[in-house]
């Protein structure tokens, strides 16, 4: 798909402070992510995320991220936070992911995938997650937590998905321009690349990240 047909969406993930959420909204990001995955240094309780959601400006999506959370925990987040999109990074199947009545993105670990397996990988994803609104390709290996800040081989991104994909994994202000130009993603997702510490966002990095994505969008084909 040509870049001239759309702009690259931006999601800032792992938000833990209302001020960072407010700045993200002011910078024009499309979505902010709240993490509820067990073991994540950015994990929130639903009440904490609800308070930060109130700092969001209109037309910014709230995304709730899970990794093998029980269904009752997901429902508690839905009640408290009212996310417009869910993101699953564990062994959840399509039936589970779509059972909450909210559109979902399925996170896919990409580290170690052979580029020659791209077409087969795409077929497998479409068969396993037919209800997914999009796929998010991340730089961690199977079974690991996301948000590791590791870049994966972009040539392994499956082709022929017929659905939007979001690029994640080690994106930073100094490499997101090349990432967008190289892969033409529907969106980009960043956590550690705009932080001074896990969950603590750096305002200057946030601004530069957005600037670099927009520069890539304006770059001639």
TrEMBL record:
Tell me what this protein is called.
N-(5'-phosphoribosyl)anthranilate isomerase
Key words, A-Z? Amino-acid biosynthesis, Aromatic amino acid biosynthesis, Isomerase, Tryptophan biosynthesis
Which Pfam families does the record match to this protein?
A: PRAI
Domain of life, per lineage: Bacteria
Q: Name one GO molecular function term.
A: phosphoribosylanthranilate isomerase activity
Note whether Amino-acid biosynthesis occurs among the keywords: yes
What species was this sequence derived from? Lysobacter dokdonensis DS-58
InterPro entries membership: Aldolase_TIM, PRAI_dom, RibuloseP-bd_barrel, TrpF_fam
The Gene Ontology biological process terms listed for this entry are:
L-tryptophan biosynthetic process
